């Protein structure tokens, strides 16, 4: 079952690559007493993720943060090295987006958004989705089910929801 509005985001240990190498962080620690936007996607360097989904959040990051958002977090079922390189090459890290890896798909499975497409090497990847989370509670949730489509999980949709709140 997919997570929905009113539920608490489950905790997960995510990883990232920084100046000290690979580090791990508890998602609950990032969400406690904060308003956070989380968006998850199928994979770093993949077509739609790189051409439509992530670029919107890079472009709108300052506007999203002006709406009282403390952090913007991108999660993908990749390793922390890939997420770091993707964040560097796209400008996401410079835009203040936390690029977090969910290498074993633990977070993805806990929110019910995993999918598998063996012919392209996708195993337990995350469907494209976005959440606004206020102190660990989901106040906005959208899952884009169609392949290659970014609608309610887009930065534009999230920003509109923040402005309407």
Q: Secondary-structure map with pairings?
A:
Elements: E1 13-18, E2 21-26, H1 27-31, E3 35-41, H2 47-66, E4 71-76, H3 80-90, E5 97-101, H4 106-110, E6 114-117, E7 122-126, E8 128-134, E9 137-144, H5 155-164
Could you describe the 3D structure shown?
The chain has about 160 residues and is an alpha/beta fold. It is about 30% helix and about 35% strand. The chain has a 5-stranded mixed sheet. The chain has a two-stranded antiparallel ribbon with strand order 1-2. The chain is globular. The two termini are about 25 Å apart.
Descriptors:
165 residues; Glutaredoxin; two-stranded antiparallel ribbon
* CATH architecture title: 3-Layer(aba) Sandwich
**In sequence order, what are the helices and strands, one letter per element?**
EEHEHEHEHEEEEH
C-alpha Rg (nearest Å):
14 Å
Distance between the termini: 26 Å
Count helical runs.
5
What form results from the Cα inertia axes? globular
- Helical percentage: 25-40%
Brief digest:
With 165 residues, this protein is of the alpha/beta class. It is 31% helix and 33% strand.
